[in-house]
Amino acid sequence: MKFSEKWLREWIDPNVNSNILHEQISSTGIEVECVEKFESKFSGVVVGQIVKCILHPEFHHLKVLKVDIGKKELLNIVCGASNCFNNMKVAVATVGSTLPGNIIIYEKIFKGELSQGMLCSFFELGIFFDDKKIIEFPIETIIGIDVNDYLSLKDNIITVSVTSNRPDGLSILGLSRNIAAINNLRISDLKYKSFSKTIQKKIDIDIQTKRDCINVLGRIIQNININVDTPFWMKKKLFFSDVLSENIITNIINYVLIELGQPLNALNADNIDDSIIVRMAKNKEKMFLKNNIEINLDENILVFSDKNKILFIPGNINSYFSDVNTNTKNIFLISSLIDRTSISYVIKKMNSNKILEYYNYGIDPLLQNYAVEYATDLIIKICGGTSGSISKKKLNIPICMNNTIRLHHKKLNKIIGLSIDATIISNILYSLYYKLNFQETFWDVIPPSWRFDILIEEDVISDILRVYGYNNVCLTPLKEHINNGQKNELTDSLLNKSAIILINKGYHEVINYGFINPKIQNLIFPNQKTLLLSNPISQDMSCMRLSLWPGLLKNISYNKNRQQQSIRIFESGLCFSVDTTENLGVKQEIFLAAAISGNNFKENWYHKTRKMDFYDLKGDLESVLELICKLNDIKFRRAIISGLHPEQSASIYFKNNLIGAIGAIDPRLEKKLNVNSSTFLFEISLYNFPDIKPLKIQEISKFPTIRRDVAILISEDIAVDNVMRKCKQFFINQEVEVNLFDIFSCKEFSNKKKSLGISFVFQNKHRTFQDNEINLMMNDCIGVLNKKFQAVLRK
């Protein structure tokens, strides 16, 4: 939100300078993004009065004026403005004055007439860029006064941003309440306006939907003049807030929005048939906007309609029929409170706008009636007209009621780290508009209606600290005895050692947020339940991650867009899934994941460039697993895994317990996720290992090794892993290293056979093996393979 400091000080004006005021806004939990100093770029412009106004004798589109600026002689000025008339108070740029763009005013002969100055519009003074008419000051304005002083344009323009749980920071009223509390002040109570109900006509409101909570109220205002100019005092404030419009009704609605944080909408009352119906749109129902824009709605979109047509949808997205235009005489001013679920569907359909942001952050239901009354008062004062009574309709009453929270004095002092007197705490809570009941050692407090974020005791303590001042809290660190379980120690050790291995293999560690884009997660895991956040930072970070893969794939896409040809990254962290057996129904589990993409090596003279493949990643994973446990306890089984290539994916098992998955990215996701085909991922859970394999240091045998290589033929349907496991099991009591060094198949092999080249390296710690011993063991091993897999020696 953007606003001028002077506007804020109209509501609350503490005796502090601007810098301290900006710091106080930040200390309330509302970020001050920037402060811009605004100063006018003109000088020498004064208020004058047209004494005489006649047409130019030759050029009738020009006028020759006599202007009084408070000096002895009247100025002669030639002007082409159409809105000049006698006795009009105007802004006069005298000879020698400077206008924006370093334009200097000189005395000159123009079209045969002497011109000793220039009448200015706001546009020519560098403000209100859409207003090019000559400025008309009120008749009581003093002649000769400097326009800079009269307009009081010197100001600080403050831009603030708020998190989704602090909608009170999106209004001048909300900011004033916070600043008043810090400075031990109190803002004036809001005064409701009363209007004589001279209009009998009333538009009823009918809610026909079953949404969580809806509160709608509005009134007819008739016989208004919509073509009047926006008053300068309002125009200046809206200009500084970047919401100035040509339409006076829109300006009044924006003015109320910034002051009170209450969205309003105005409809052309003459085009509403009898009543307003709040309902859900029909599937493929159409809505017509200006400029022949047509929108197809669906059953998730909340609409406001009459009996025959849609009038608008939340966000002040008005149909062509109900929109206010220059011919409008009668309007229906409406305020609505709508549940966030309905707003989220509108945002997905139409994208967000300023009004929808206010709805999405939250609206104070107890301020709706005042906002309608306040806007009505402004409309009648500026545009004229008469008003009718307010129509109201509520669903699921009460709309918003904050629960009672018990605040314990002892706990507050423990968390803060110092002792604060109970009277001070009570005064702070009172200044923040809490309802409170003190009972010796605790308070029962009810937060004000505009503080939706105050839900638990710690929230109240945080609110007290903002006003008490973080600078007043001592810097003594809190002492707490934490008993870390063995599981955490093991997990930390696993993570540290795994990271060292992966970094040494050329991987880079990345850290991503635990909340991600639900659309990306649904692409990779379409059939799994996700945990959505009620107050996300943004729509792209609105659900908790089920896996580390979405973050890693986003990192790969980011680096690919920056022409990185070889990417190796890994990450460890918590993932979250729905599990009704766990505390709060959420299971948290630490995972280790890695991803590779692109070329195996960067281009060099020694290695031939090739794309990384499944076995590159599998080898790196086995290096990590070998540190944790025995590889004999690990098994890879072919499986169809969501997000992975159906022909290049496997589940990972530790002692027959599923611990993770590995594979290539699903080809159907490559374009959607902006990754290439040589992208491979693995992920393992670190909660499945009871202990780390102890590190054993032993002396190297002094006896020589003996190697035997064999080539066997087996069926193509037999998994190589099964053959290797059988070989290792056969030599389990011997010091034998079994290694697969070749896989070969060709058309010459009958019955779909493949050849495996396997090496056996024998070494005893106490003696040298004899050839006949080796030959006997090899013959027995081949016999076992023949019996189990019908393997035969290849000749």
Automatic annotation (TrEMBL):
Pfam families membership: B3_4, B5, FDX-ACB, tRNA_bind, tRNA_synthFbeta
Reaction catalyzed: tRNA(Phe) + L-phenylalanine + ATP = L-phenylalanyl-tRNA(Phe) + AMP + diphosphate + H(+)
User: Can you supply one Gene Ontology CC term for this chain's record?
Assistant: phenylalanine-tRNA ligase complex
- What are the GO MF terms of this UniProt record? ATP binding; magnesium ion binding; phenylalanine-tRNA ligase activity; tRNA binding
One GO BP annotation of this record: phenylalanyl-tRNA aminoacylation
Residue ranges occupied by any B5 domain in the UniProt entry: 400-475
**Chief subcellular site?**
cytoplasm
Please state the span of the N-terminal signal peptide per the UniProt entry: none
- What is the protein name given in its UniProt record? Phenylalanine--tRNA ligase beta subunit
Please name the InterPro entries in this protein's record.
aa-tRNA-synth_II/BPL/LPL, B3/B4_tRNA-bd, DNA-bd_dom_put_sf, Fdx_antiC-bd, Fdx_antiC-bd_sf, NA-bd_OB-fold, Phe-tRNA-ligase_IIc_bsu, Phe-tRNA-ligase_IIc_bsu_bact
Q: Which residues form the TRNA-binding domain?
A: 39-148
The UniProt entry, under Gene3D superfamilies, shows: 3.30.56.10, Bira Bifunctional Protein, Domain 2, Ferrodoxin-fold anticodon-binding domain, Nucleic acid-binding proteins, Phenylalanyl-trna Synthetase, Chain B, domain 3
Known EC number:
6.1.1.20
Q: Which source organism does the UniProt entry give?
A: Buchnera aphidicola
Q: Which positions does UniProt annotate for Mg(2+) binding?
A: D453, D459, D463
Give the record's family classification: Belongs to the phenylalanyl-tRNA synthetase beta subunit family. Type 1 subfamily.
| Quaternary structure and interacting proteins, as annotated | Tetramer of two alpha and two beta subunits.
